Amino acid sequence: MTSTALPDQESVATPVAVPTLTSHVRGYLSRVRGGDIGALPAVLGLIVLCTVFSIMRPSFLTAANFANLFTQGAAVTLIAMGLVFVLLLGEIDLSAGFASGVCAAVLANVVTVLGYPWYVAVLAAVLTGVLIGSMLGMLVAKIGIPSFVVTLAGFLAFQGIVLLLMEEGRNISVRDPVLVAIANRNLPPALGWALAGLAVAGYAAVQAMRYRTRAARGLVTDPLTVVLARVVGLATVLGATVYLLNQERSFNVLINSLKGVPIVVPLIAVLLITGTFVLQRTSYGRHIYAVGGNKEAARRAGINVDRIRISVFVICSAMAAIGGIVAASRANSVDPNTGGSNVLLYAVGAAVIGGTSLFGGKGRVLDAVLGGAVVAVIDNGMGLMGYSSGVKYVVTGVVLLLAASVDALSRRRAAASGGR
Amino acid sequence: MSATPLLELRGIDKSFGPVQVLRDVAFSAFPGQVTALVGDNGAGKSTLVKCISGIYPTDAGEFLFNGRPASIHNPRDAAALGIEVVYQDLALCDNLDIVQNMFLGREKRHGLVLDEPTMEQMAADTLAGLSVRTVKSLRQQVSSLSGGQRQTVAIAKAVLWNSKVVILDEPTAALGVAQTAQVLELVRRLADNGLAVVLISHNMNDVFAVSDRIAALYLGQMVAQVKTTDITHAQIVELITAGRSGALGLSAGNGSNDTGGEPAAAPGAAR
Predict the structure, then answer these.
(1) Among A100, A281, B7, B257, which residue's Cβ finds the most Cβ atoms within 10 Å?
(2) Is-above-0.95 flag for pTM?
(3) ipTM confidence
(4) Which domains does chain B have, with CATH numbers?
């Protein structure tokens, strides 16, 4: 089908000869106007919230509080990162919060009660997550129960299982130094800089390679200025973050020094990069988007839809397990309420606030991280301003509703401006 | 007209339980030609297409591909022979872009990683081969395309894999005037590129605009396969609705429920 080119056809291969910076920006703006706003609300919200809290409470803007934000938001963010995969199919996992609780309980039992080393406990916790996920996925994909009902049942049942594992409300402490370090210790400042440098260099290399292969093949490339701006942008954000986190945060340096990037940060970063790679660069990820966009089209294209549906629940519950491990590490213990109360709603909120659609087919792992940051900032800032948890819940609920309305409205907007 | 049809069916029977949907159907499609498949609702067009594409097994009949007997038991057999069907509902994912849709389920990869540049280039070449100039960027999401552009993408997806026979199910049913013209032009170009194109349509204007041959089904029977130039609009309508028109179609003895007056009916008499 490549032959018989008529003279005036080259225009298809290179429709826009050299996209300039202005045409790139204009394209982005028209996409935003057409309803494809992505993570824009989360980024703007983050800037507004941080500005407001910094003015109202100067203590918000200290290095110590900045570090707190990361450790406070880590567990919710990790669960939200897994939820993105489920949400991409237009499904929901309401049991993710208590699934993380069950996995944390398994971790605590294995490491403290049974006395196994930390890696055995971590493995057991993650395997528990995989087991939970495959069970939920089977019920949804093979039996055909709506995911809402399956995971609502899971929500109740897992709450019970945590209680049973905790023998009616006991609290098991986690003292293993490695596990405690995850959410409570920091990287040496030099290592923080090295990792940040590595990340920027890696990102720049990937961008440069893509630019060169596409240019060499005569395909449309992003303008070089945009590519450079992306790399410089990442370098600025990472540089500022590492610089702030490497400040001394201890009240009394003589007793103990407290500085460096919290260990959870590289953990989240590695999972973020892995998740993004899977979704954007592998055919498995492409198939997830396809099933979320049009299940019938995916089926006709030869994609095993059931397998995809089961696998996203497995990923979600496994990520919930990692979230549970971080929560256990931060609290130094596991109790029957680990993964309970607001954890699940904060996680769903994080994913949706970040721009992942509840209707399926649209979302990125990065959304969960940005949304997780918004949720953590609200929680932290309102705490500093002395509001009760009642007010915090109400505000977070309103923000979630706001994000869901933005999602629904942008979808209507896209439907109105698109072809159908 | 070429000597051997690329695709030839002989004596196809197909029943669903007690209902016989196709009765002794013969059908051929020639390379480089557009064969229109017409017939009223329930005449068996869709069933015939599903038999060709391997979705339904046939009860009896021969299947020849390029003059040689072939057997099609499932859609994969049909795809292996180079038969692609573009269904009416298109089966595109709105949230993916043009390239991603065209390669859905058959992505090109380097090991684990998707090979985007190769896919984009192949998609661009295919669209260029079809002289498609209406899409701005191959990285546009399908949700931002018009109905005609979607149809174009679906057709391009079908011809991407060096297919030899492309079957289009009502490609213009949902389109406006300008877009219909675009798609018909594309259908014509497919045939000019050497493919055997089968066009299912209810719209006689479309049929006469692009087809070289017309095959008419009436209640599960193939009543005529004729050159488009040898037949008039009115005759085709008669074939579709009554199963015969003058000397064409079912013989008088077969369709005896009609009253007399047949022998005198001249081909152009109806209009």
Answers:
(1) A100
(2) no
(3) 0.82
(4) 1-82+164-271 (3.40.50.300), 92-163 (no CATH)
